[in-house]
Specification:
The structure holds two protein chains of two kinds.
Chain A lengths: L2 H12 L3 E5 L4 H9 L6 E4 L3 H5 L2 H7 L3 E3 L8 H10 L2 E5 L2 E3 L4 E5 L14 E7 L3 E2 L2 H11 L6 E4 L4 E2 L7 E2 L6 E7 L2
Parallel strand pairs in A: 1-12, 2-3, 2-4, 4-7, 5-8, 7-12
Antiparallel strand pairs in A: 5-6, 6-9, 10-11
Chain B lengths: L9 H10 L7 H18 L4 H17 L1 H15 L1 E6 L2 H14 L4 E4 L3 H5 L2 H7 L3 E4 L2 H8 L16 H12 L7 H18 L2 E5 L2 E3 L5 E5 L3 H7 L3 E7 L3 E2 L2 H16 L6 E5 L11 E7 L3 H5 L15 H5 L1 H6 L10 H12 L16 H5 L6 H14 L5 H14 L2 H17 L24 H14 L1
Parallel strand pairs in B: 1-10, 2-3, 2-4, 4-7, 5-8, 7-10
Antiparallel strand pairs in B: 5-6, 6-9
The chains are: A alpha/beta, B alpha/beta.
Chain lengths: 186, 468
């Protein structure tokens, strides 16, 4: 692991999030390992390019997972939202990751993918190593240059948390309880 | 929850707060210290902190200097992005706009993420009076709403409560068995509110920043409720003060990091939510409305003595370090914004005649200015407001007379000498306890003059030296 990924790992540890660094061919295996606590995991995935390249849908289906694909039309939305809220995990990619703070920039795109990273208790983020920058400022610089700023976006740094009762840290309020970042290392 | 009211007598309000305290260190005292400690640790590990703060301060200042142009740019982008703009000159107008959006959707409830501006306009009470149930979804706000209270802190609304308080509250209001375990209590709130999120027709969020260059509406959150209310319902309303405009996404990145640091001692909050446009696909909100609120802000903007207060990004750090806030907590201040920033913002918004004592609720120790991420000179602004109160002639007759006499004595050397000799004479005859100064001497001794004046000592010494 290089310095940058070590920095990322430290940042994620301090946020109670996890890092998996793996080769392209190992991505599905690594995902399955993290999903093994569920019998027949229900997993929502987005239509992002990297997830298609890695054949996540096929790999997880073959291993017995039920895949919740994005709804194609408005009539399916209600049903999809209900299922999504019961799903075990949501898998997305990200535009970039800032190592120092463990922050991932997710572009919601169109259709709106934001619910996949929000409703299930486990959020898996898969990116290629080239998407990792040192700082938030650098990540934003890249985003500004990418021509992809016209759209909804969210920066995620670890699992949802609160300290509203006596400043005691509690993980998993309204968003995911657990966040795992998978960095594809060439 | 009631419309934010100001206490008729601020001093009395503070006194009551002190009288009601127990021996146990109060939660807000402990909690403010915890937040500050984590922030200080991060700052000491961040060598560029001062530089970043200076840069962000400058950018906020420039944004306000160019507010008109930025508004024009922002509005054009909103129009392009399909965001519907509603401008509200005051609280009533804002409430009416929000109500009409809810009625159009046939919504009987409004899912809210944390927004101090909604407290400022008394939105919850207004909606309840019109048969609509506002539902706070930030855990702290949810707790204070169940207690029918106002938040006691800008970023930690329930910080005045102990875990037992929350446990008893949930037992009574939600009918669950008593527990004082924060993770258990949080789970209850998650479960209750998840149902609401899934069924919500309309959501309302606060706005930390709006980006002129792109039109992004930025909300900073840790719990994810800010994401829920802006992602799940068909209609989203963003309620923002008109001063919260920033130039670019780059500026947002820096402001956000300083905000996280100052508010909760984090390098980054869990979520930075950037709304751009309504969804065109099957899922996600189909309408985004912005309610742009003035409510006294343009008056502050036009006031060169006070308009620096508009740089504020509502991190609440000045509350955490304030020796007054740490003693009395947030509620005795009344209004919406407690602590040092409230001592400035409340009278600036409402006029000094509405909150004449707020600028005096400070020891002027300067801790607030020192910690402020956008370098607002709070003590200086408090002095300007104090001066304003004096100029308005609202001070007591006794105080006026006292200062008049002081001026008379101080302006002429012979008078000063006579007066201080007289005071020394009186002091020799009467004990300190016989010389009370109302208010001042309740907890202090009357200050004593030195036995001999400096001038006398100087002349004595000079004579001795000359004699040698």
């Amino acid at each position: 692991m290089n310095e940058q990924l070590k920095t990322l790992e430290n940042a994620l540890t301090s946020l109670d999030a996890e890092l998996v660094v793996c080769h392209r061919d190992e991505a599905i295996e690594q995902l399955l390992e993290k999903l093994q606590e569920f019998d027949h995991p229900q997993v929502a995935i987005t239509d992002e390019e990297l997830l298609q390249t890695l054949c996540i849908e096929k790999g997880l289906t073959e291993a017995g997972a039920e895949i919740l694909l994005f709804p194609a039309s408005k009539t399916e939305v209600e049903e999809w939202r209900k299922k999504l809220s019961m799903a075990d995990a949501g898998i997305t990619s990200a535009f970039g990751i800032a190592a120092e703070t463990g922050s991932a920039l997710l572009l919601s795109g169109s259709p709106d993918r934001r619910m996949v990273s929000l409703l299930p208790p486990l959020h898996c983020i898969i990116v290629e190593e080239s998407s990792v920058t040192n700082t938030i400022d650098e990540m934003f610089q890249r985003w500004l240059k990418s021509g992809l700023t016209e759209g909804n976006a969210v920066v995620v740094s670890g699992p949802s948390r609160t300290a509203d009762i006596e400043k005691e840290l509690v993980l998993g309020v309204h968003g995911p309880v657990r966040v795992i970042m998978f960095v594809i290392h060439e | 929850m009631s419309r934010p009211k100001l206490p008729s007598d601020l001093k009395q309000s503070f006194r009551e707060s002190l009288r009601n305290r127990s021996d146990v260190p109060l939660p807000y005292k402990v909690n403010t210290e915890k937040s500050t400690r984590r922030r200080d640790e991060l700052v000491s590990d961040w060598p560029e902190f001062d530089r970043v703060r200076d840069r962000v301060t400058t950018r906020r200042r420039e944004a306000l200097e160019n507010l008109d142009a930025l508004h024009t740019q922002l509005k054009a982008n909103w129009e392009k992005n399909g965001v519907q703009l509603h401008e509200a000159k005051d609280a009533e107008a804002a409430c009416e706009i929000i109500l009409s959006i809810l009625q159009k959707e046939n919504a009987d409830r409004l899912l809210k993420s944390k927004t101090m501006v909604s407290e400022e306009i008394g939105l919850n009470e207004y909606l309840e009076n019109h048969g609509i149930q506002p539902i706070e979804t930030d855990l702290g706000e949810y707790i204070v709403q169940l207690r029918k209270e106002a938040p006691s802190h800008i970023t930690m609304p329930a910080m005045h409560l102990t875990r037992d308080d929350v446990g008893h509250l949930f037992e009574e209001k939600l009918g669950i068995p008593f527990t004082n375990d924060p993770p258990e209590l949080t789970k209850v709130a998650r479960k209750t509110l998840r149902k609401e999120f899934l069924a919500a027709k309309v959501g309302l969020c606060g706005v930390n920043f709006a980006v002129a260059e792109t039109g992004h509406i930025v909300t900073v959150t840790n719990e994810g409720n800010g994401r829920m209310v802006t992602t799940m319902p068909r209609v989203v309303i963003a309620l923002m003060g008109m001063e919260r405009v920033t130039q670019s996404l780059e500026d947002v990145a820096q402001l956000w990091q300083l905000l996280a640091l100052s508010a909760t001692g984090q390098k980054a909050t869990v979520y930075l939510n950037l709304q751009h446009s309504p969804s065109t696909g099957p899922a996600g909100p189909e309408e985004i409305h912005v309610v742009l609120l003035d409510n006294g802000r343009s008056r502050i903007y036009a006031d060169p003595e006070l308009n620096e207060v508009l740089r504020c990004i509502r991190c609440g750090a000045c509350l955490n370090v304030c020796p007054v806030y740490r003693q009395v907590g947030g509620h005795p201040y009344g209004g919406t914004y407690p602590g040092p920033i409230g001592e400035v913002f409340t009278p600036a918004l409402l006029g000094i005649e509405q909150a004449p004592d707020h600028p005096f609720a400070s020891s002027l120790c300067g801790a607030c200015e020192q910690i402020c991420p956008v370098s607002i000179p709070i003590p200086e602004l408090l002095l300007r407001l104090r001066d304003r109160k004096v100029q308005s002639g609202k001070t007591g007759k006794g105080e006026d007379l006292l200062w008049k006499q002081f001026e008379t004595v101080m302006m002429k050397e012979t008078r000063y000498r006579k007066a201080s000799n007289l005071a020394r004479g009186v002091q020799r005859i009467l004990p300190a306890s016989m010389l009370p100064v109302p208010g001042w001497t309740n907890h202090r001794d009357t200050p004593r003059f030195a036995g001999k004046s400096f001038r006398t000592l100087w002349e004595q010494k000079k004579r001795e030296t000359d004699d040698e």
